Amino acid sequence: MQYPRPSKLFALGLASIAAAGPCDIYSSGGTPCIAAHSTTRALYSAFSGSLYQVKRGSDNTTTSIAPLSAGGVANAAAQDTFCANTTCLITVIYDQSGRGNHLTQAPPGGFAGPESNGYDNLASATGAPVTLNGQKAYGVFISPGTGYRNNAPSGIVKGDAAEGMYAVFDGAHYNDGCCFDYGNAETNSLDTGNGHMEAIYFGTNTAWGSGAGSGPWLMADFENGLFSGQGSKNNAGDPSISYRFFNTILKGGPNQWAIRGGNAASGSLSTYYSGARPTASGYNPMSKEGAIVLGIGGDNSVSAQGTFYEGIMTSTYPSDATENSVQANIVAAKYATTALTSGTALTIGSSISLRATTSGYSDRYLAHTGSVVNTQVVTSSSATSLKQQASWTVRAGLANGGCVSFESKDISGSYIRHADFVLQVGANDGSKLFKEDATFCPQAGLTQGISIRAWGYPTRWIRHYSNVGYVGSNGGVHAFDAASSFNDDVSFVVSTGFA
Ligand SMILES: *[C@@H]1O[C@H](CO)[C@@H](O)[C@H](O)[C@H]1NC(C)=O
Ligand SMILES: *[C@@H]1O[C@H](CO)[C@@H](O)[C@H](O)[C@H]1NC(C)=O
């Protein structure tokens, strides 16, 4: 082939030299994006605007994070600088399509969110670090209770009109709650009936449909039903997913829909279902309403968890060929895992003690009395039993080896876990929930030493409050979430264990 001469390149302009983004590919296929969301990268080669906004706990101010360059990866370093020594939440996920279809904190609906005003929680800005082509970025880590929404977007399709969408998720972060969704939903946050949604679902909920094996599965949330295929509840062609990065696709039009998926880090897409609409009443024709949800069901069901990296919606039915090109683009973005913790290294197998640093409490250590986790005054002359109660063996994280778990020194096989955000020492029952609730991610302390966030609730940190142990969020709804002295209460000095 002939290469353009430099003068010709110059005339083409930089935008045409930069590799096409997913939405450039959809445009070329005649099915342009009408919403484009990502906290990790620009989805158009020419996009250099704001990807998302974060708010920090220290002064409640916000800043917007843009790509490092047009079409590039998010400037995670700008977030790290802004959020240093405090907590940060993702307040807005901007729409890159130019239509203003931004996602913000979901309001109360059929189900109320956990905030005092019924709104859903916002996601931590630091719960889902990854790299793209070696550059650090952050995804949106959705814990139960967290959700984003836009109930009045522009141009999202209604009724039986055709649309398409894709989303890239963490294939290892899911549960069986309802419903970790991205896509088209009701505009009033209520369940208005069958066929009023068309959203990507990912998880192990089996109340309506399922696929092969034990999940998790990609399914379609059409409201009052998660569908893996046409009529029967189980579609053996819808596989259990074990990809760390999972590209999910849903598209639907008049009596026609499809789900497709693939490893977002390599290879191609497979079609899990393509065919007619469900036969149950209300799904043909559809009655789509045209709102957008992320992390929740159409009626604001908030029990699910998952991680979102990027996703888009169209207002026409994309071709398989267009989606295949987008898959290649996502693979070329080179999503990869990176350290979940930074600024500290706890040695697996070592015994540690954790000293409180809050003024007036700095002679107290994180300890337990039976199943209750508390802080107690411990010295070198304390009884052996108390020294053991204030010592913890560092184990590889039960739910995620990138973080750690804390095994009791005196009750072997029992670990610190949170339940309703209160810390307990409990026996490992081997359940997914126990392992997740017993997994913690330490990092450099907000004021000194280390601070330790709950893996499954990265807005929540191990905190002492009235000398009892919690996972507290900075300024949340519980007394133990109080913003006052939060940074000190979550900062602990690590020493060799008393026992
Ligand atoms: C930030 O806002 C929250 C909620 O309105 C409030 O409780 C908290 O005191 C504020 N923090 C600062 C530092 O202004
Ligand atoms: C910020 O955090 C670092 C790491 O824990 C600590 O060394 C530093 O003293 C903190 N700065 C402030 C102002 O708290």
What does this structure look like?
The protein is mainly beta. The chain is 11% helix and 35% strand. It folds into two domains: 22-337, Jelly Rolls; 350-496, Trefoil (Trefoil (Acidic Fibroblast Growth Factor, subunit A)), CATH 2.80.10.50. A hairpin with a 2-residue loop joins strand 27 (414-419) and strand 28 (422-427). The N and C termini lie far apart (71 Å). The longest helix is centred in the middle third of the chain and has 13 residues, at 320-332. Strands 2, 3, 4, 5, 6, 10, 12, 13, 14, 15 and 19 form an eleven-stranded antiparallel sheet that branches. Strands 1, 9, 11, 16, 17, 18 and 20 form a seven-stranded antiparallel sheet that branches. Strands 26-25-22-33 form a four-stranded antiparallel sheet, with no helix packed on it. Bound molecules: 2-acetamido-2-deoxy-beta-D-glucopyranose (2 copies). The site of one 2-acetamido-2-deoxy-beta-D-glucopyranose (NAG) has 5 residues, from loops. One 2-acetamido-2-deoxy-beta-D-glucopyranose (NAG) binds next to loops.
CATH class of the largest domain: Mainly Beta
Task: Please tell me the CATH architecture of the largest domain by its name.
Answer: Sandwich
Distance between the termini: 71 Å
| Strand portion | 35-45%
Global mean pLDDT: 95
Helical fraction equals 10-25%
SSE class: mainly beta
What small molecules does the structure contain? 2-acetamido-2-deoxy-beta-D-glucopyranose
Give the overall form. Answer: elongated
Low-confidence stretches: 1-17
The count of helical stretches stands at 8
Q: Main β-sheet: number of strands, strand sense, barrel status?
A: 11 strands, antiparallel
CATH topology of the largest domain, anyone? Jelly Rolls
- Secondary structure tally: strands: 33
Rg measurement, Å: 24 Å
